[in-house]
Specification:
The chain is an alpha+beta fold. The protein has one domain. It has 2 helices and 3 strands. A 3-stranded antiparallel beta sheet has the order 2-1-3, with helices on one face. The structure holds zinc ion. Zinc ion binds next to helix 1.
Length: 57
């Protein structure tokens, strides 16, 4: 299971995403980022941060 906590990106946000692989998880993260943080595009910098924040459980 791949797990991502939005707060790890520095947002004041308690959203946590879980998915069975990284691609699924990135999809969820993109949707959430758009809906809740007005991030229509995930920049390279953010993508790097997201990837380093993903943990495997
Ligand atoms: Zn969030």
């Amino acid at each position: 299971m791949k797990v991502f906590k939005c707060a790890d990106l520095g947002f004041k946000c308690d959203w946590i995403a879980k998915a069975k692989n990284e691609n699924e998880l990135l999809k969820l993260i993109k949707e959430h980022a758009k809906k809740c943080h007005d991030l229509n595009e995930i920049s390279k910098e953010i993508a790097e941060k997201v990837k380093s924040a993903i943990i495997t459980q």
